[in-house]
Write a structure and sequence with these properties.
The complex is a heterodimer of chains A (443) and B (142).
Chain A (H helix, E strand, L loop, with lengths): L12 H4 L3 H19 L3 H10 L20 H6 L13 E7 L7 E6 H17 L7 E4 L7 H13 L2 E3 L6 H10 L4 E4 L1 H13 L11 E4 L6 H11 L2 E8 L4 E7 L6 E3 L4 E6 L12 E8 L10 E10 L12 E2 L4 E2 L4 E3 L2 E3 L1 H12 L5 E6 L6 E7 L9 H19 L4 E5 L6 E2 L2 E2 L2 E3 L7
Parallel strand pairs in A: 3-4, 3-5, 5-6, 6-7, 17-22, 18-19
Antiparallel strand pairs in A: 1-2, 7-8, 8-9, 9-13, 10-11, 11-12, 12-13, 12-14, 15-16, 17-18, 20-21
Helix pairs in contact in A: 5-6, 7-8, 8-9, 10-11
Chain B lengths: L2 E9 L6 H9 L4 E8 L3 E8 L2 H10 L4 E11 L5 H11 L4 E9 L4 E8 L2 H10 L7 H4 L2
Antiparallel strand pairs in B: 1-3, 1-4, 2-3, 4-6, 5-6
Classes of the chains: A alpha/beta (443), B alpha+beta (142).
C-alpha cells in the first residue's frame, strides 16, 4: 500500500470517508434533485421529454445512463445564459471559459454554489497539506478563469492567509515568496518550473524559502515534471482537477498517499466512458470523463462530456482513509483542444483569426514547444497570393494583424511565421493543424 | 515607361533561392537583375527578367507566389550628385519611395536605379517634366 508522504488530514471526514452505500444513497437523492433543477432549462426539458425522463423515474444510480449527454456545443448553442436555472437575483458570480470559437461559455454560481465550490477546494487543499497557520500565494490569474477565485475562496475556507499575487512577474512572485515566508503556492506546474529556474539563477537555495507545498492544476503535466519540481524546490506538489463547465477546480485532488485524485463524489458523479461508443469502460481502463454535478443550483449540468481522458479506480482502498473513487492524471483529450500556458486554445480559434485577416483561411500549423519551462506557441502560415505584397512593410503589417486577431480571440500571443505555399505537411489530403513537441503525453 | 518586376515570397532558410533559379534556368530565362529584401524569417525576391509573362507563368505553375509590380528604372549619372538629382524630384513632389535598388548594365556599364512608388504613372510624369527619362524595357533587356 502507498505511503503517506505528509501528515494525513481530512477536511470533511463525514463526507470524504462516508460509507459507500450511504454515499450512493446520497448521490441518488441529489441526482433526483439535480434533474428537478435541470428540468426548468429548455435544453433538458426537451431532452427529458424525448427520453421520457422525470426525477421520480430515476430509481438507482444505474439510471444515470439513461440521461442525456451534454456537450460543449450544447453550452454554446444556449449562449449566453441558456444553462442558467435560477433567477438573476440568485446569481452571485459569473465565470467564463474559452470556447472553440471566439465566444466563451458562461457558468453561473449562487451563494450556495460558491460555498460548495470553496468546500471542494478546501478538501483537496487540506489533503495536500494546507493548514490555517500557513501563508499561501496564488499565482493564477484572477478573472474569468475559475482557477484564481476558486482556490482563493477554498483557502479562505481553510483559514490560511492569501497573497493574491495573480499571474506573471516572476521576480515579484519570488520576492513575495521569500519575504512573506510563503508555505503554499498555487500555480500551473510549468510556472513552478519557471520559478525554480529564476530562483536558481538568483543564487537562492531551497533553504532560503519557507515554501513547502504546491497545488497544481490548469494544465497537463507529468510525473517526471513532479519529480523535477519537488527536487528543485524541496516541496511537495499535489495535483488537482476541475473544469469551469462543471464548477472549476475542486472536482478532485490528491491526498497524502498520492495514488490518484479523490473525486468529491458527494457532489459530482463521474463516469469513464469509451469516447466512441459512450459505454462505460472497466476499472483502470482509459476513457473519457463524463461528469454530472449533483449539488449545483445555478447551472445543474447533467452528464457533461469533458473530452478529458483519464482512468478511474475504486476497488483498492486508499491508506488516507477516504472512501471516494480516484482518477488518474488527465492523459489527453478526445478533441483538439490545446492548453497553452494554462489557457484553453482550439485550432479553430486560430483559423477564425486567419479568416478575419485574409478573408480566406490558409493552411497553417500550430507548433508547441517548451524550451525552458514555459510554453512557446508558434503558428506557421502558408503565404497566399491574395495577401502577398512586394512591400516588406505590408507583410509586416499582415503579420501584426494576424498576431492581433489571434491574441484577441485566444488570449495567447503566437510567434507568427509566414511560410512558403505547400510547405506544410498534408496527410491524406487533410492538413495537420497541431504539432506538440512539449513532451507532455503520458503513457 | 514602366518596367514589370516579379516579386516572389521566399522563406529565409537554406535552399529557398535555388528552386526559383532552377525553374528560370529550365525555361531558359535570364535574370537581368535581382534584389532581396529579408527579415529573420522570410524575404521578398524581386526580379527583372525580359520574358516576365513567361517567367510569371512557369514560376506560378511551380508553386511559387509571384506578384507583378510596375517599377521605374532611371539612369543615374556616375558623378557626385547623380542620385541626388533623381531624389530631388521625389522630394519636390513629396513622394514616398517604397523601395529601390541599383545595378549596372550594357557595354558602357550604365548605372540604373530601380524605384517602386505608390503611383508610378504619375511619378513618371514628374520625372519627364524635369527631362529625366526612364529606361525603356526594350533598352533594358536588349
Amino acid at each position: 500500500m502507498a505511503e503517506l508522504i505528509i501528515p494525513n488530514r481530512i477536511y470533511q471526514p463525514e463526507f470524504e470517508c462516508m460509507d459507500r452505500a450511504e454515499r450512493r444513497a446520497l448521490q441518488l437523492k441529489r441526482l433526483k434533485e439535480s434533474i428537478e433543477r435541470a428540468s426548468v432549462l429548455d435544453f433538458y426539458k426537451k431532452k427529458f421529454k424525448e427520453l421520457g425522463i422525470t426525477a421520480d423515474k430515476i430509481n438507482s444510480l444505474d439510471d444515470l445512463r439513461r440521461l442525456p449527454i451534454t456537450t460543449k456545443q450544447d453550452l454554446r448553442d444556449y449562449y449566453p445564459f441558456g444553462f442558467f436555472a435560477v433567477d438573476r437575483s440568485k446569481l452571485v458570480r459569473i465565470h467564463a471559459s474559452s470556447g472553440t470559437t471566439g465566444k466563451p461559455t458562461f457558468v453561473g454560481y449562487t451563494k450556495n454554489d460558491l460555498d460548495l465550490w470553496s468546500t471542494c477546494c478546501a478538501r483537496f487543499l487540506v489533503a495536500g497539506g494546507l493548514t490555517p497557520d500557513q501563508v499561501t500565494q496564488i499565482a493564477f490569474g484572477y478573472g474569468l478563469f475559475t482557477g484564481g477565485f476558486g482556490l482563493h475562496y477554498g483557502i479562505e475556507k481553510v483559514g490560511a492567509a492569501i497573497i493574491p499575487a495573480s499571474s506573471g512577474n516572476t521576480q515579484r512572485q519570488i520576492m513575495l515568496l521569500k519575504d512573506a515566508k510563503v508555505d503554499t503556492v498555487i500555480c500551473t506546474p510549468s510556472y513552478a518550473l519557471n520559478i525554480a529556474e529564476v530562483i536558481k539563477a538568483q543564487g537562492l537555495k531551497k533553504g532560503d524559502l519557507a515554501w513547502k507545498f504546491a497545488h497544481f492544476g490548469g494544465e497537463q503535466w507529468t510525473e517526471e515534471m513532479r519529480l523535477k519540481i519537488e527536487d528543485a524546490l524541496g516541496i511537495y506538489a499535489f495535483n488537482n482537477y476541475g473544469l469551469s463547465e462543471i464548477i472549476g477546480p475542486g472536482v478532485s485532488g490528491e491526498c497524502a498517499a498520492r495514488t490518484g485524485m479523490h473525486i468529491q463524489e458527494d457532489h459530482f458523479l463521474v463516469e469513464c466512458l469509451n469516447p466512441e461508443t459512450l459505454e462505460p469502460v472497466a476499472e483502470g481502463e482509459e476513457g473519457e470523463l463524463v461528469i454530472t454535478a449533483l449539488s449545483k443550483e445555478a447551472c445543474p449540468i447533467i452528464r457533461y462530456r469533458t473530452r478529458d481522458l483519464s482512468k478511474l479506480f475504486w476497488s483498492e482502498p486508499c491508506p488516507c482513509g477516504r472512501t471516494t473513487m480516484r482518477m488518474s492524471r488527465v492523459k489527453g483529450r478526445t478533441d483538439d483542444m490545446m492548453i497553452i500556458r494554462g489557457v484553453n486554445v482550439f485550432p479553430s480559434q486560430v483559423e477564425e483569426a486567419l479568416m478575419k485577416v485574409g478573408g480566406i483561411a490558409p493552411h497553417y500549423l500550430i507548433e508547441l514547444y517548451r524550451p525552458g519551462n514555459l510554453d512557446q506557441a508558434v503558428v506557421k502560415i502558408e503565404m497566399l497570393p491574395e495577401t502577398f505584397s512586394d512591400k516588406m512593410d505590408e507583410l509586416q503589417k499582415l503579420k501584426n494583424s494576424i498576431d492581433r486577431e489571434i491574441s484577441a480571440i485566444t488570449g495567447i500571443h503566437f510567434d507568427i511565421q509566414l511560410v512558403a505555399p505547400n510547405s506544410l505537411e498534408r496527410t491524406g489530403g487533410k492538413a495537420k493543424h497541431v504539432a506538440d513537441y512539449r513532451g507532455l503525453k503520458i503513457d | 515607361m514602366l518596367i514589370k518586376q516579379l516579386s516572389l515570397f521566399v522563406e529565409n532558410k537554406p535552399g529557398s533561392l535555388y528552386p526559383i533559379c532552377k525553374v528560370l534556368k529550365d525555361n531558359n530565362i535570364s535574370i537581368r537583375t535581382l534584389s532581396l529584401a529579408d527579415t529573420e524569417q522570410f524575404g521578398i525576391l524581386r526580379l527583372l527578367v525580359k520574358e516576365w509573362e513567361k517567367a510569371r507563368d512557369v514560376l506560378s505553375e511551380a508553386g511559387f507566389i509571384v506578384k507583378v509590380t510596375d517599377v521605374i528604372a532611371l539612369p543615374v549619372a556616375d558623378r557626385p550628385g547623380g542620385l541626388a538629382e533623381l531624389l530631388e524630384v521625389v522630394d519636390k513632389h513629396n513622394i514616398s519611395v517604397e523601395y529601390m535598388y541599383a545595378f549596372t548594365f550594357g557595354h558602357n556599364q550604365t548605372a540604373v536605379m530601380v524605384f517602386r512608388f505608390e503611383n508610378p504613372e504619375e511619378t513618371l510624369k514628374y520625372f519627364h517634366a524635369e527631362n529625366i527619362d526612364a529606361i525603356e524595357a526594350f533598352d533594358l533587356f536588349k
